[in-house]
Amino acid sequence: MPRNNKTSLVQKIASQAYVTFPNCSTSAIGDNKTFLERQAELVTLLSSIRAADLRIAPPKKLSISSSQSSAVPPVTYMHICETDVFSMGVFLLKSGASIPLHDHPGMNGMLKVLYGKVNIRCYDKLDKSAGAESDTERQFDPPLMPFQGDDVRRAVLRSSGQFSHQSGPCILSPLKDNLHEIDAVDGPAAFLDILAPPYDPDNGRDCHYYKVLQTCKKSEQSGEEEAWLLEIPQPEDFWCGGEPYPGPKVSV
């Protein structure tokens, strides 16, 4: 599709995502010059997107009773488009809402805040190294149930920060910042989300949720925080509803 003044910014982002992510192997992606150049173009486009470009705005304050609030999803999703290469949509978080710690197996991702502010903490699982304390040997308080031992993994906190519409995109890859949790700060928030390839349980890309059991400093020199994560079912207080996307039509 020609990139003229009549092409919407979200269409340009979708078209760029489509050419950026095909055939990106997890092992060579960091050395792939073409990928890095295309990714940089996508980052530039994402950095320019605003809520108004998608015809969305922060919700007006409404009075909701306690009985009603329990039936309102804390997070909703606006589907924009999906192909075998990538999916794109908008997540909308109510004030005080959180998306629990979860992973993106073998996937790349980009997140750009459209309005509000979010705190994002990103983790990576650590390989089991020789001589290191095994996940099943470590003691936790309260103790784990016997059947939970295989669901514990060592990880490291790679980054933690606050993002707003003025921030650049938050980027994840199969090997870096692949697990994250997202909290709305001081009110509602929304962000544009690109995942490549999309979640697909049939191809080993199911979404797994985690709970931080314990943390400690990995080393004083690096300042990195090591954590032990327990894989858990989707938390009962988290679910995601859907709502229609009001923005420009996108085709890929």
TrEMBL record:
GO terms for molecular function: metal ion binding; oxidoreductase activity, acting on single donors with incorporation of molecular oxygen, incorporation of two atoms of oxygen. Keywords: Iron, Metal-binding, Oxidoreductase. The keyword Metal-binding applies. One of its GO terms (cellular component) is mitochondrion. CDD domains: cupin_ADO. Gene3D superfamilies: Jelly Rolls (2.60.120.10). This is 2-aminoethanethiol (cysteamine) dioxygenase a. It comes from Cyprinus carpio (Common carp).
